[in-house]
Specification:
The structure holds two protein chains of two kinds.
Chain A: E1 2-6, H1 7-17, E2 22-25, H2 33-44, E3 50-53, H3 57-69, E4 74-79, H4 80-85, H5 87-95, E5 101-106, H6 120-123, E6 131-134, H7 138-155, E7 159-164, E8 172-176, H8 180-186, H9 213-224, H10 227-242, E9 249-252, E10 259-263, H11 267-280, E11 285-290, E12 292-294, H12 298-305, E13 310-315, H13 325-334, E14 342-347, H14 357-369, E15 378-379
Chain B: E1 2-9, H1 14-27, E2 31-36, E3 46-54, E4 69-72, H2 77-80, E5 92-96, E6 111-115, H3 117-123, H4 135-145, H5 151-161, H6 166-179
Parallel strand pairs in B: 1-4, 4-5, 5-6
Antiparallel strand pairs in B: 1-3, 2-3
Helix pairs in contact in B: 1-4, 1-5, 3-4, 3-6, 4-6, 5-6
The chains are: A alpha/beta, B alpha/beta.
Chain lengths: ~375, ~180
Amino acid sequence: MKKVIMGNHALSYGAMLSRAQVIAAYPITPQTQVVELLSEMCADGTLNAKFIKVESEHSAMAACLGASLAGARTFTATSAQGLALMHELLHWASGGRLPVVMGNINRAMAPGWSIWTDQNDSLSQRDTGWIQFYCASNQEVLDTVIQAFKVSEKLMIPSMIVLDAFALSHTYEVVDVPDQDKVDAYLPPFNPPFRLTPDDPHAFGGLTSPEHYMELRYKLQKDMEKVPALVEETGKEYEKMFGRYLGQVDEYLCDDAEFIFVTSGTAGYTARVVVDELREKGIKAGNLRIKLFRPFPFEKVRSILSKVPKVAVVDRNISYGHHGIFYQEVKSAMYGQPHQPVIFGFITGLGGRDITRDTFKEIADYALSKSQAEEEIVWIGVKK
Amino acid sequence: MIEIRFHGRGGQGTVVASKILADALAKEGNYVQAYPEFGVERRGAPVFAFIRIDNKPIYDKSRIYTPDHVVVVDPTLVEAIDVTEGLKDGGYIIINSDKKPEEFKFPSRYKVFTINATEIAVKHKLGTLAAPIVNTAIVGAVVKILNLTKLESLVEAIREGVPLKPEDNIKAAIEAYEKA
């Protein structure tokens, strides 16, 4: 059924259709309408789940971990400072191999206090062992929640669905909300190999000596490495059932491209419009929107960028003292490859500054007119 | 693609107006993107809502700076701010007002329409006398003036999407549609 819904509610519907059994959340700014709608669904019986209202995001994640350990399918949502407060328990979720799925609305970190979008909140959690998906439409948000539960529960690794504040979170778009029975056929109930239950007592997360700890981390990494193939497999299965393919990346006119934008989030859709405009002018442009950020889709990125002369990576984030984070990742992916494109790194759109078609035109003008970047970081739209 | 900007004041239902319009358009198979001003809303302060409409998927996710048309939900805003900012030549300005279009002094490259949505809202007891909720009436007029959807689609969208007094809101929208 087609509905006009905001991105926040696309997360809620995704969790509802996935039949989340426990939702724990802290309902104050920077929280959004994600859990507001879920709490209503729990109250009116639309969703048969336990809604746990807690006193902080740290407690929200703690409640999710307990519920997941007990074998419940578990969902939460947060944003910015709220995600930062969860940080300790994000490690706990992945280290404990608990497949919690969480929505994160990308909001810039304070101070200065901001409710507007950039990616530093979620990218600061890059090394916590969570799978991260960056979405570009409300449809993709809803579909990816369902897919994420499937991927997470298969590999016992938590997933974060990331969407831009306002540009998706509060923007209404037409979304095809799938039928429950078809989602049930795609996503079977969660059935973990171990669970916390008085019927079969176990201790979890105990002291782990140097003799064993490293193997746990090795196994987590090995399972992380299985994510790209599983995303492809479950994405194709989703396409068969629902008509929409869910991949690691979204490539647009990359095959014959001589210049490719590497993008993420909603900016990755605006870029497509500029690719069309550049093509009309005879410039063979393309757009590679990276959807799966962790694990990084090395093979996909390498195969797409292996033929192109010039690449412009557009970051709505920064690792202070280094570069844009997607820029680092793309350079790292291309290191040692037989063909190495000239890679430019652009930073723009921090703290919700709009990324427009003009932003991409400026980026293209810079990259197409130079054989090398004149600065390691090219800032677009900053008042210097 | 058509881009429309709504001007209202916090508490008047301006954002809901754009959502109802989006619902009605989606019913006829259009692609829509409707969003509020990206920020914090305060009751009584000027607010904006935006909508993009197309017959194919909309990939541009940036904000709307040069709308095709503007809708002014609160007529006092005409004096307070420049409602024509970025408005494309030939654009329509649809104002909730008891005045005649020619009483507004806008450049001749724009076409002005008025609809007394406040009177219609009061008549159907929507909101209070001091703060009538005019959004369904104004959308009724917008749909007609810009020839965006059939009246039935709008009626259906209001019935499904307006939780309080849907039938009175429908009557207001139909009255505005007929008067516009």
